[in-house]
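Protocol check, entry for the methods section draft. Step 1: assemble the input record (protein sequence plus ligand SMILES). Step 2: submit for complex structure prediction. Step 3: store the structure tokens unaltered in the notebook. Ligand used here: zinc ion. Step 1 record:
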Amino acid sequence: MKELIKQAAEDLAAARNVVALTGAGISIESGIPPFRGKGGLWERFDPMEIAHIDTLMRDPAKVWKILVKEMKEIVDRARPNDGHKGLAKLEARDKLQTIITQNIDGLHQAAGNTDVIEFHGTFAWQRCMDCNKKYETRKVDISEIPPRCECGGILRPDAVFFGEIIPPEAMRRSRQAATDCDLMLVIGTSAVVQPAAMIPVIAKDNGAKIVEINPERTPLTDQISDYLIMGKAGEVMNRIVSDLQKII
Ligand SMILES: [Zn+2]
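Step 3, stored output:
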């Protein structure tokens, strides 16, 4: 692993335009369980029911009680971990231009990254279903469910529900970023779910090097990634940033 860490630091030092694609794996160390898989919310709830836009429109109080309230408790207390902080350090050194994330926890922005494309919107903000006014989730009072906007409208997460489309601007910008980069870090995601799956492929087709950081092998590993650094995002990012600081 030591050699691969050094390789990643050298590749970053040489790169002109770096993009990171991140998924649930980077936020696990912040206490945010992945939706899918063991311990995930979707083990207890059927997402096609409770996280579907039709249910939200029909019965927002139910969606708040079962899903949003619990997610708010998780996201409110989550803080960026070394994985997020490592990416913020790369941006500060001009070694990361853009993050494309499948996460909705807002932790990349909290860590200090300024250009974050959120495929699935964000849970860090709520928006009024009537007037679209936005409220920071952390500051929303949930003594009454569902919470309401000052206009009387009901608040909903500013995230993409099942049955809703990926924001077209996020799609367009992600494609562009993947096309333009010469190095892509893929962190904490197996990128098997569309539309994230196409992002490393676009980058690869346009000549970018793909550096994968995941705790285990993924479908990307042999097909798309130039190499896999196997480990937790926080620990691996700390070591890469430390090696990079010796070079640049
Ligand atoms: Zn409103």
